[in-house]
Design goal:
Elements (H helix, E strand, L loop, with lengths): L2 H121 L1
């Protein structure tokens, strides 16, 4: 083998070795950085998860309270509707009673007029 070719091959091998060493160091540094980033991301996720869990619990509590209030209001509306129906029936019965009483008063007034004429005829 020619010494110049041997030196060239050795130089290429040396360059490849240096490049491989640089790539390895960079990869190690990248891996460490990626691990750090992954840990940071995991910590952030854990923080968000705990905060989100707290917010979720608050939302669930508020939703349950709203559901209870909604049920209470629906029950109150049903009672008011029943009262309204009952009141409407009472009003209708009272209106009928007033008509009957007015008819009786009219009949009594006619009878009074009739008796008044008889009294007037007796006196005159």
């Amino acid at each position: 083998m020619n010494p110049k070719i041997g030196v060239a091959i050795g130089a290429v091998a040396l360059v490849i070795g240096v490049v491989a060493l640089i790539i390895g160091i960079d990869a190690k540094n990248s891996t460490t950085s990626n691990k750090d980033v992954a840990q940071q991301v995991q910590q952030e996720l854990d923080t968000l998860k705990s905060q989100g869990g707290s917010e979720f619990s608050k939302l669930i509590t508020a939703q349950r309270a709203a559901a209870r209030e909604s049920r209470r209001l629906r029950a109150q509306v049903k009672r008011l509707q029943a009262d309204d129906t009952s009141n409407s029936q009472s009003i209708a019965a009272l209106e009928t009673a007033v008509k009957v009483i007015n008819t009786k008063i009219a009949n009594i007034n006619k009878e009074i007029d009739k008796l008044q004429k008889q009294v007037n005829n007796l006196g005159g």
